[in-house]
Design goal:
The complex is a heterodimer of chains A (98) and B (487).
Chain A: H1 6-15, H2 22-39, H3 74-77, E1 84-85, E2 88-89
Antiparallel strand pairs in A: 1-2
Helix pairs in contact in A: 1-2
Chain B: H1 8-16, H2 22-40, E1 43-46, H3 48-64, E2 75-79, H4 106-114, E3 117-122, H5 156-163, E4 169-174, H6 180-186, E5 189-192, E6 212-217, H7 220-230, E7 260-264, H8 274-289, E8 293-297, H9 305-320, H10 340-351, H11 354-367, H12 373-394, E9 399-403, H13 419-424, H14 432-435, E10 439-447, E11 450-457, H15 463-476
Parallel strand pairs in B: 2-3, 2-4, 7-8, 7-9
Antiparallel strand pairs in B: 1-3, 4-6, 5-6, 5-10, 9-11, 10-11
Helix pairs in contact in B: 2-3, 5-6, 7-15, 9-11, 9-12
């Protein structure tokens, strides 16, 4: 039986930038353990020497000319931005003192 | 005449012979949506104004006889994860509740160019994560055959809309069965094309190496017509194939006699509802009568398809959904945020439902240091074995036949408390996506008054054979012609 404790749940929640409460962490911890347990059945499969399936459709590299083309206007792009100022997306401080 | 029950082909004939206009056809569907959809709840957004404008333009095209395609003037709806310029595209998530794309998906563009009429956007499990449509952040969609049952998922709205005749065709999206499983539950025809056959540009990604857009229709012939119009190479999606699309509809009557039909034994095991098993056995006999040779084959890694699929999906989804961060579009919860990280944490906590949270966290777990080899890499290796299973089977047979689900549509609320049990309802439809092969679902009977679905699985890029066999089967059966009585 795998156990994914609440500490691990909180850690992965932060990795995916998801706010989470203590109660939620407990609920997810129980659910994750049973799901991961189920996934562990893959251990039965012998995969020595089996390559990882890295491609699925066209295996070739697709290249194109690096040419300037018209794109969405700044005004149009910013229509969906929650906050903008002087033609830029506005967010709180990104770089600061820790 | 009931305009809403026409096939695309029938409607097209009426349009080009001027017996009905696209505006009339569109109004008939809009009226039906107003009457019936409050019971089914297939639509998240109805784009009435745009639909009538597109219908008027289609009528002009038909009047002039210019650029008339089989889809000109035909009303359709599209799953709410596919971008539609100027029409809200929510993925049935709170985080995109008010998101209005500034551009069209390639599929949306192609359908607009063909002259099809967009009726609206259909409900789904949030971001495609679910098998019953119950993970929509907005409301549940009901199965038109019995309103207490689920329509399946994640394209449950598209399947229900098709089944209840709320559009002449619908577009779904299949990441791990999301077209075929609800098609089976709702008794309609739907195809997951070969990965890379239809452009993903403008599709809000769930798992980029699995996602396939595909039509849902009344029959195989309509399905072929729609796929012809949306398939093909797209410079905006590098994974699309360059190879030409065959003329599916023109070749649909080609004989299937002597073709080899494989029955994968791993798909016919204990746990299948008795009525489903009976319907499938009858379908196999029907194919035999059509002159197909029946062979038992083995896809020996089938039982591992589910963990492979879910592990890789979680990993890909956790990366894809990183863009939902409350800064450039969508919901933004910035109150009290002291820095940008706080905006991320707050927005995603409020904007995502529990299933999305589970999956992106488990994805990060499977990709994180210490677990990557055991989970992500292991799953990618077993994925290779799944693909080899299909390659080996297709060296012996032309096409495979399997159920779409072990049961018919279950009841609303029946599986919501146990995520793992919900995942298991996808057991028969997930293997094709890690392998990339195409598969078409179609109705093949009833069990306990609910539709039973089967799927035909084909070789890479061989949608043609799927359409031929599905069409031949539908010439000798009438399951696809049954319509639910909506009470």
């Amino acid at each position: 039986m795998s156990t994914i404790d609440t500490k691990t749940v909180k850690h992965v929640a932060f990795l995916v930038r998801l706010g989470i409460s203590e109660e939620e962490a407990q609920k997810f911890s129980a659910q994750f353990s049973s799901i991961i347990d189920y996934f562990n059945m893959l251990n039965e499969v012998e995969t020595t020497g089996v390559p990882s399936a890295s491609d699925i459709a066209n295996a070739e590299n697709v290249l194109r000319e690096d040419a300037v083309q018209p794109s969405m206007s700044r005004e149009e792009f910013l229509k969906n931005a929650p906050q903008s100022e002087r033609g830029y997306v506005k967010v709180p401080t990104v770089l600061g003192e820790e | 005449m009931q305009l809403h029950t026409l096939t695309i082909q029938e409607a097209h004939q009426l349009l080009v012979t001027k017996q009905v206009s696209s505006v009339e056809l569109t109004q008939a569907f809009l009226q039906r949506i107003r009457e019936i959809d409050p019971k089914i709840k297939a639509y998240v957004t109805v784009s009435e104004e745009l639909a009538l404008e597109q219908a008027r333009k289609a009528d002009e095209r038909i009047a002039k006889g210019e650029n008339v395609t089989p889809l000109t003037g035909i009303p359709f709806s599209i799953k709410d994860c596919i971008s539609t310029r100027g029409v809200r595209t929510t993925c049935s998530s709170k985080i995109l509740e008010n998101y209005i794309p500034q551009y069209n998906a390639t599929v949306t563009d192609k359908l607009a160019q063909a002259g099809a009429v967009l009726l609206g956007k259909t409900n789904m499990d949030e971001f495609g994560m679910g098998s019953s449509c119950e993970n929509s952040a907005f409301f549940n969609t009901h199965n038109p055959w019995n309103l207490d049952h689920v329509p399946g998922g994640s394209s449950g709205g598209s399947a229900a809309a098709m089944s209840a005749s709320l559009a002449a065709f619908t577009i779904g999206e299949d990441t791990g069965g999301s077209v075929r499983m609800p098609a089976g539950f709702c008794g309609v025809t739907g195809i997951k094309p070969t990965y890379g056959r239809v452009s993903r540009y403008g599709l809000i990604a769930l798992a980029s190496s699995f996602d396939c857009i595909g039509p849902m229709t009344r029959d195989a012939c309509d399905c072929a017509t729609v796929l012809e119009h949306i398939a093909g190479h797209d410079p905006l999606d590098s994974t699309t194939y360059q190879s030409p699309i065959s003329n599916y509809t023109q070749n649909i009557n080609k004989p299937i006699k002597g073709m080899k039909l494989g029955i994968p034994k791993e798909y016919f095991v204990a746990g299948m509802e008795a009525g489903v098993e009976t319907a499938l056995q009858e379908a196999i006999r029907a194919c035999e009568k059509l002159g197909m040779e029946i062979h038992e084959v083995s896809l020996s890694h089938t039982k591992y398809a589910l963990p492979v699929y879910y592990l890789l999906l979680f990993a890909e989804a956790s990366a894809n959904l990183a863009r939902m961060d409350g800064t450039r579009f969508g919901l933004s919860v910035s109150e009290g945020a002291k820095d940008v990280i706080d905006i991320y944490l707050q927005t995603r906590r409020e904007g995502f439902g529990d299933e999305v949270k589970r999956r992106i966290m488990l994805g990060a777990y499977a990709l994180s240091a210490g677990y990557y080899d055991a989970y992500y890499l292991k799953a990618q290796k077993v994925r290779t074995l799944l693909r080899r299973d299909f390659e080996a089977a297709f060296s012996k047979v032309d096409i495979l036949l399997a159920p779409t689900s072990p049961t018919t549509a279950f009841k609303l609320g029946e599986k919501t408390s146990n995520p793992l049990e919900m995942y298991l309802s996808d057991i028969y439809v997930v293997a094709t996506n890690p392998a990339g092969v195409p598969a078409i679902a179609l109705p093949c009977g009833f069990s306990k008054d609910m539709p039973v679905g089967m799927q035909l699985i084909g070789k890479h890029l061989d949608e043609q054979t799927l359409f031929q066999v599905a069409h031949a089967y539908q010439q000798v059966t009438d399951w696809h012609k049954r319509n639910p009585k909506i009470s």
